[in-house]
Write a structure and sequence with these properties.
The chain has 207 residues and is α+β, with helices and mostly antiparallel strands. It contains six helices and eight strands. An eight-stranded mixed β-sheet has the order 6-7-5-4-3-2-1-8, with helices on both faces.
Length: 207
Amino acid sequence: MKIIQTKLKDMPSSLLAELGSYRYSVFAREEGWSIPSRLSTPGQEYDRFDRSDVCWLIAWHAQHGICGCARLMKWQCPDNNDLSDAERESLNGGPIWEMSRFSARLEIDSELPLNILWHALQLAEQSGIGNLFSAATPMLEKMFGQYHVNYLPLPPGVIQSEDNLFAVKIPVSQPELASRFHGSRRFKPEEVLPSLGVSISWGMRGR
């Protein structure tokens, strides 16, 4: 398993199409998320936060193709009247990244979510970011507890791109993750994908 790091603007078109198909399989087909009609591409999932400067981490397996992903972008406090002044003040404590479209195929690698998270935290720390805000599911919270990942709950409405999910604040300093994944590197797309092409069809395999 290799973790690809790339910005959307630098992503080969073949990888972008594969990522859109993976996202559709996970978030639209399995999770039942709706796709705005103006952003609809048959069999692919995109949203208004897919800007050119957004950074992606993509887990790539030579046999199975994309097995997980996470999107990293600058977090901005939403215009949400449900947040109190105290909550707004507590959230504006320095630069923060938002991690969204976080997914991993556990049947391929049971620790893949932690691996992707580690790389996201490392990239954030190297960029001078102290915390990640991320949507979280009960399964992910259980995994965080099992592997001693430090996190704090956030008020509703903090996550812009996935506002229907429970959100958490994850500090970049995570000793348990460091002990497991320290030394693992990230790859450029051209280091991983043969001839910058994606040879695996989502129609030929299940998730």
